[in-house]
Hints:
By secondary structure, the chain is mainly β. It has strands spanning 2-5, 11-14, 23-34, 40-54, 59-61, 68-69, 71-80, 86-96, 100-108, 113-120, 125-133, 139-147, 154-157, 164-166, 181-182.
Amino acid sequence: xxxxxxxxxxxxxxxxxxxxxxxxxxxxxxxxxxxxxxxxxxxxxxxxxxxxxxxxxxxxxxxxxxxxxxxxxxxxxxxxxxxxxxxxxxxxxxxxxxxxxxxxxxxxxxxxxxxxxxxxxxxxxxxxxxxxxxxxxxxxxxxxxxxxxxxxxxxxxxxxxxxxxxxxxxxxxxxxxxxxxxxxxxxxxxx
Length: 191
């Protein structure tokens, strides 16, 4: 969804999807300011309105009549990463009602200590995503969901990356019958 602020303090929203000519639902609005680095700094308001019918490609305004003032808290802590990797990306989202997700930011991030501003919305939780990369295609990622907006002193450990063992690097004759093998990792999903 794309939103645009107007000089009068209202917001315009354009929505698109493939399928039905219209969809009823609840529209949520979250208003915040970013710091110079693009991270959320202050949360100013939140509002929601149920029973709104949206049309694909339509521009909607005045859907949420007013925004309630919000408090700003901090999601903070530190992460440990395997020595061969470097923290490369962070993302924070706020989740309301289990299915409404606002991604507050998703951008390159390199510090293993973090403190991200988060909105204090009753019943909402936060999701933190961290990724670290290394040589080749080595990537370690972790999601922590269901966090309160004021979660502090989080200790996040990114798992080590699996090490490929077969076929060996530079092998020839690799085809659909070739066995691929790698070191195992506890609690990992392999794709």
